[in-house]
Write a structure and sequence with these properties.
Elements (H helix, E strand, L loop, with lengths): L51 E7 L6 E7 L6 E2 L8 E2 L9 E3 L6 E3 L8 H12 L15 H17 L4 H23 L6 H28 L9 H14 L3 H12 L6 H20 L5
Antiparallel strand pairs: 1-2, 3-4, 5-6
Length: 292
Amino acid sequence: MNLLSGLEKFGLSADGTMNIFEDEKSTTKASAGAGNKDGKEAAPEPTEADFLLEKHVRCPMCEKVFAEKSVKNGRVKRLEPDRDLRPRHAYIDTLKYSVQSCPNCGYTGLARSISELTSVQRKLIQENICDKFKPSPVEEMDSYTYDYAIERYKLALFNSIAKKGKNSEKAYICLCMSWLLRGKAEELEKAENKDQAAIDAVRKEEAAYYDQAYDGFMKAVSTEQFPMVGMDQSTVDFLLASMSYRLGKLEIASKMISSIITSPAANSRMKDKARDLKEEIINAIKTGKIGK
């Protein structure tokens, strides 16, 4: 499976031969009620666009200013995340808006670190992205679709590979894409006329990116320093334990969970989550059944 398919329209060759995690030389919805007791109509359910604002960003590469959708963080309501820390919010999937992409030169990256470029990385981005990029018309939309968001993440991954970014960064981008594909599959499953073949295809792609993310993070923890893409060691260990559990790697999951429970650096909330996951791991070992 070519995980970077679809970027050809931008003039970027993604023929499946790129190794995402090649060895590096340097270290590296809640439902609205039907009404109240007074018989008044319930307020209309918010849309994703209600939680967005438009901000203008200056590209670190070409210096041109472009518009981006951004989440009004003060307005979103956090929900319980998935076991593997996939964030959930009411009425909006905030992951769609965590990447910034310049429509002029093609430079794309995680919003949190898009300006963090070394001189060598700038040269690599210029040669491998900007000089080859073919701008396409920017479609006006109130909010991003899953397909549009995933396309932007593919560009971010392509950029990270081109600039020889850290394994942790590439792994995190792959993880976010797998989470977005999970969200897309959930959206398709709610459709009135459900297309099971389409859902299965999305789930297959989700699994492919998840595997890449897992491999990348496993490499990163042995070569990089913490914090890693904004996460401390306990958070990364819990993430990898959860991913190991989901992938059926129960022995690895068990070892990582034990290290969190005994770690003096892990906070009580993280240890509680680790103990809960430990119980599920033990149950999975006994029954041979793994929860989602």
